[in-house]
User: Which sequence fits this backbone?
């Protein structure tokens, strides 16, 4: 599903190295934790998958396509196969829960009947159907993150990327989010999650890819956060 | 991918509404600057028309002494023959005392001093009115007759026409300079209003990019915003132009300002000016959007 | 707390520089709009001066029949006596045939038709030139003499003066309307440039607030920005006004446009106009800043 | 140092209750963890101390002054006694480490010789003297947070408020930050820190104030995150 081959990425004209000779492969349906200390390149890794950044060298395949060769106007269509969740939710404050999720379908031109069918379904999945008319600031942090996940998932993407989705949340809420991601993974969606939360990583025992200074230094099938 | 019209209308309206102050300022500035352009263009057209009439008349007049009262006078005959033989002259007509009296009455109708001054055609001098092939030759043709017996004075029809042309070209240059400075301001204002719209919607744009909206889908509402501002500004500019020009005409007609009376433009000429303004307006709008999208919308 | 001048200068320069396009547009618009105001004000002053001269002359003239050639004529005497007894009349002078001839020569110097038309004072009618206490009473005073024996016509000194006044007031209204619309745009542009500066520095402002910078410390650089834009705009506006007015005068002088020749303003009057423009400029700048600070700077 | 007496705070015209009858007192030199689930009012508590928000009712004393009675223009002087650290650092990206810290002194009008004396001193304390000419994006997350702490502390405030200062950081970096806050606390500065990180709370064993739905539901001298 995702394959990195010797990918290097620098910022600021090569002065800041974010990734260096990074190679790894993630299969369809896997659940992968991306760990590593601050600045090790986790966010860069995710941005490259999303083609939000371009690699300096090396090749990246996502969903069977080498995305370095993708022409500019095809990028949006790549992104429709990838869902994204961030630590800071990125919800639109002036739209309700329902509208936030529907927005993701509207802007890719889905017809209205598809939207009104799919949105309640995914809100049901994240357990927020009852709160669909609330605005983001009327929700707890965990609920907001679930809306963000619903938005990322409503288009049934092949891959779900999550960059520290529980960084702002208390331990109870964090467990709720992890259960939800687990459920989404069980529907067949590949999940890649960057995190610092060793408690989660250690308890879930999924595949762990550790980055350090832009290189993969560990790849463990049922791994833990530290060694 | 098709972009629904409904979506574009909704988003564009929102954008315009959110920063109504800037949108308004942009529209006002476009309108003003285009009305300057419009007035300048129409004025130019009218002055062209007006001076064309003058030019169809006389470019040079030779006034004879008071002793010369008709063409039968040998001095007049001599002038007439000379004129007939000059290749620069396209047409020369004789204006006898009755002709002069008619002209005089027309010029000073309603002015008692002048009306009572001349009560008889015999008080006025006769003259030749000459149309030249090239107006620039007026001086050389005139000089031939300067010291001719029986010739009292040579008058060149430059005075009023030239004054009119000079004042109008001065006003035109001034208003076109003002208009171009204002057009720059317009572009900046439109650019700004779009920049603010982009900024106000940066979160939405970010989400749109994340979930895979196409670049055109993201751009179109902002482009529509600029275009609408430019076009609305141009429409108001057309209105202002037509209002100003018609008020000015009314003023001239009411006050019998003779020099300016022949100034008119045909409906067709006006329409051409208005179409030009609309084109300018959309160019300004599109230009402003293009710069704003390029500089501030990273898609 | 003292705010260091160096700090304000540095920050203001930065702000202006960062959005130079908007700052420039703001300055240009202020300059243009104030130059409209300036030209309108100076023009008004000049027209006032010009018409004051006219008004120091005659507001009403009573022309007598050609049979009346001097004051010794009883019909003329009758008119003179009546005028002397009217309280509305401030001064009445008799203009005999020599006076009329002098006036006529002066009016039509260099025009052969007119010069040759009248070669003798006896060709011209005599008249009374009347200065009234209030110009508005011209109609009522004139009507008294309409059917008086020996009176040929009543002329009101309205013709040219009124045309000049009407055209100039039309142009003034038009330019003041344009100026006020532009002033609105100026305020919006200044407001916008400050809003963008505030936005560009929102993180710094946030940190400033967190660490306890006083509100004035945060505000002053933005206020200075607006004030500078307004003042620079006003300065350029003064320059444009003076340029336009002097070019216009040059044009009139070169072309001998008689009607407009008496239009001048003293240096003192010009300076007053420029000071007014500078005051307007700073008001516009301060107004723009005030709105921007109030709406977009939350301190 | 900080005293809340029956403080209530709502948002959106009373529809969202953030704090309700909240009373507590924090002494000079204390180190207090503010815990509670997402939306329990921790950030609101800190904002009230900073007078960034005003309470709907109740009284708040900070450094001996009742801040509800403080006139508007005196607020900046109150804030000079309070340092603030946030999860997202809030550094100015176009200024170096040294300039970021110096900025805090400049804008309150400190003379230049004071600035050039105090900034290196506090950079020494946070261990970043050698990196004083770097820009924020040339630093790791932990280093950036230490710059933020240096900026909050350079004016020697009486109170240091920290809102989830380790939310973005990996466990190793988190421990570094906590040691630094501990050292600052030992200089006599009162530290109030809102956090979700139970590992830290449980290992440091300091006073814990727990909020739930805007009320203090627990106040333990040598507390832990949960019960
Ligand atoms: N836009 C950028 N410009 C310059 N440098 C950048 C940029 N984004 C990231 N970097 C640098 O690239 C390196 C890798 O950053 P990245 O954000 O991928 O790390 P990370 O593993 O996500 O860290 P964290 O755990 O703090 O989120 C870091 O040194 C960072 O400073
Ligand atoms: N500016 C605001 N407008 C409206 N509601 C707000 C605002 N700020 C906070 N709230 C609401 O007030 C309540 C308390 O929020 P607060 O941010 O204090 O919680 P918190 O304990 O800091 O939560 P977290 O752990 O998620 O940071 C929440 O219900 C929140 O939605
Ligand atoms: Mg990251
Ligand atoms: Mg909080």
Assistant:
């Amino acid at each position: 599903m995702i394959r990195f081959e010797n990918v290097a990425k620098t910022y600021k004209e090569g002065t800041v190295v974010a990734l260096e000779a990074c190679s790894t492969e993630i299969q369809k349906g896997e659940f992968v934790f991306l760990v590593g200390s601050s600045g090790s390149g986790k966010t860069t890794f995710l941005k490259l998958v999303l083609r939000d950044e371009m690699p300096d060298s090396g090749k990246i395949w996502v969903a069977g396509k080498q995305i370095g060769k993708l022409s500019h106007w095809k990028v949006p269509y790549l992104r429709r196969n990838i869902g994204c969740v961030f630590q800071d939710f990125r919800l639109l404050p002036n739209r309700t829960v329902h509208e936030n999720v529907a927005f993701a379908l509207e802007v890719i031109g889905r017809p209205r009947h598809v939207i009104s069918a799919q949105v309640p379904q995914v809100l049901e999945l994240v357990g927020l159907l009852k709160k669909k008319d609330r605005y983001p600031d009327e929700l707890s942090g965990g609920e907001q993150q679930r809306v963000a996940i619903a938005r990322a998932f409503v288009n049934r993407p092949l891959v779900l990327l999550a960059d520290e989705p529980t960084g702002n949340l208390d331990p109870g809420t964090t467990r709720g989010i992890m259960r939800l991601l687990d459920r989404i993974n069980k529907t067949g969606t590949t999940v890649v999650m960057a995190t610092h939360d060793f408690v989660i990583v250690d308890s879930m025992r999924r595949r762990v890819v550790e980055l350090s200074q832009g290189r993969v230094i560990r790849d463990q099938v049922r791994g833990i956060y530290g060694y | 991918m098709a972009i629904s019209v409904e979506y574009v209308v909704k988003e564009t309206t929102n954008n315009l509404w959110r920063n109504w102050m800037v949108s308004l300022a942009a529209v006002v500035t476009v309108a003003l600057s285009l009305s300057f352009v419009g007035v300048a263009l129409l004025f130019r057209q009218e002055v062209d028309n007006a001076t064309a009439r003058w030019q169809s008349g006389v470019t040079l007049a030779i006034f004879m002494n008071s002793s010369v009262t008709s063409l039968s006078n040998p001095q007049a005959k001599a002038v007439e023959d000379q004129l007939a033989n000059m290749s620069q002259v396209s047409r020369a007509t004789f204006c006898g005392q009755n002709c002069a009296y008619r002209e005089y009455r027309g010029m000073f109708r309603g002015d008692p001093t002048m009306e009572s001054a001349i009560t008889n055609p015999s008080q006025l001098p006769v003259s030749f009115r000459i149309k030249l092939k090239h107006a620039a030759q007026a001086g050389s043709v005139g000089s031939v007759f300067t010291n001719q017996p029986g010739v009292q004075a040579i008058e060149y029809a430059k005075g009023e026409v030239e004054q009119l042309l000079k004042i109008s070209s001065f006003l035109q240059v001034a208003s076109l300079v003002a208009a171009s400075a204002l057009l720059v301001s317009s572009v900046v204002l439109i650019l700004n209003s779009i920049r603010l719209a982009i900024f106000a919607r940066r979160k939405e744009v970010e989400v749109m990019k994340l979930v895979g909206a196409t670049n055109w889908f993201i751009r179109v509402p902002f482009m529509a915003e600029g275009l609408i501002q430019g076009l609305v500004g141009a429409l108001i500019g057309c209105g202002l132009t037509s209002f100003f020009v018609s008020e000015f005409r009314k003023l001239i007609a009411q006050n019998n300002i003779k020099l300016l009376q022949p100034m008119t433009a045909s409906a067709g000429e006006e329409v051409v000016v208005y179409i030009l303004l609309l084109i300018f307006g959309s160019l300004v709008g599109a230009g402003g959007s293009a710069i704003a999208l390029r500089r501030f919308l990273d898609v």
Remarks:
- The two ends of chain A are 27 Å apart (CA to CA).
- The interface with chain B takes residues 50, 72-73, 76-80, 84, 90, 92-93, 103-104, 106-109, 151-152, 155 of chain A (CB under 8 Å).
- Chain A has a mean pLDDT of 92.
- The pocket of magnesium ion (ligand 3) is lined by residues A 42-43, 163 (CB under 6 Å).
